[in-house]
Amino acid sequence: GVKENFFEIGGHSLRATTLASKIHKELNKPLPLRSIFEAPTIEQLAAVMEGLDQVAYASIPVTEERSSYPLSSAQKRLYVLHQFDPNDVNYNMPSVLQVSGPLDVKRVEDVFRQLIARHATLRTRFELVDSEPVQWIEDTVPFEVEYTKVQVEGETADTRVSQEAQERVQQFVRPFDLQAAPLLRVGLVDLGVQGTEQEPQHLLMLDMHHIVSDGVSMGVLTDEFVRLYDGEELSPMRIQYKDYAVWQQSEAHQEWMQRQEAYWLDTFRG
Asked: What is the pTM of this model?
């Protein structure tokens, strides 16, 4: 409804950013993010937008094929942080999903191979060229699911399975070498048949480096994994992250950055 509050029905800052982008794309009106917080209903936003000038929406273009690509600002920060301590796992992004019911291990591996082929970030490695970090996108990368099976029997089996599963999860998270793609690893722990319904149980473990992923990306990956595992076909992607990284270096974006710089220099001039 037009009077419902965006944030009371599940909206948050990331969704507000997406909403502002879609409004700009559909209506050619660049809505400041602040406006969504100040006018969180459709009725209020409509009034705000009446006073906005039209500014043409420009999509991020697909960049030409290159041997390597620049890093985005966020990737540069993470690359530098990684150089301080390459054995640090603070910027690993692990997650563990419990899967109840039958699971086709080979199909899991095939689906992740499809995801790696679909997303260039999952085939990306990083290294220095002439003292500047760049990203290289491989056509193919080696990948296999790390499969282990927990085998315990007896009255204390459930407790021992839980302890061993925790140990497997802790061992799974380890440093990444940014020069070797993919910066993704997948593990599957077979816990055997458990629970009152006596169903097969598995732990599906994912770990990615933050330089190729973030919280939103993990949500996309999980969603696409489920859809591909179910046999669904995904529509092709128009752009990849490398296109965004190149766009960040473009003249139009640099002009915007210079305006931002001027604003902050003025704000803190004292």
From this structure: 0.81
